[in-house]
Amino acid sequence: MALVAILEILEDVSVKVASPLKSIRSYCILCSGGSTKAVAYCPCHGCGTSFCPLWPYRFGVRPATVIRKMGIAMLSPAMMPSPDVPLEDLPTNPRLYQPEAK
């Protein structure tokens, strides 16, 4: 019975399957408690914090696209804000983020 139900779903052309990159984006939003802002400034880049292999893909696009549209700061762990910085102090739009000079 279950196989028949699966085959019926697969035959339905209205069922949309997310791309792998969009699935990663959805997972990252879920992991960050539903906050897209928390995804943008996710501290799981492995530089002094935990490491997530999905981190470079958290925006749902290829890393080269992120660099082109938002700048290198969003993919450079050294330029990311410290996990101690409250999200409220960071811009909602990641394109406006300017890393502090160290």
The secondary-structure class comes to mainly alpha
Low-confidence stretches: none
Element pattern in H and E: HHHH
Number of strands: 0
Quaternary state, please? single chain
Shape category: elongated
Cα Rg: 17 Å
Terminal Cα separation, in Å?
Answer: 62 Å
User: What fraction of residues sit in β-strands?
Assistant: under 5%
Portion in helices: 25-40%
Largest sheet: none
Task: Walk me through the structure.
With 102 residues, this protein is mostly helical. The protein has a domain at 18-86. The chain contains 4 helices and no strands. The mean pLDDT is 84.
Secondary-structure map with pairings?
Layout: H1 2-11, H2 20-31, H3 36-40, H4 63-70
Short descriptors:
elongated; 102 residues; mainly alpha; 4 helices
Kindly summarize this structure in a few lines.
It contains 4 helices and no strands. By secondary structure, it is mostly helical.
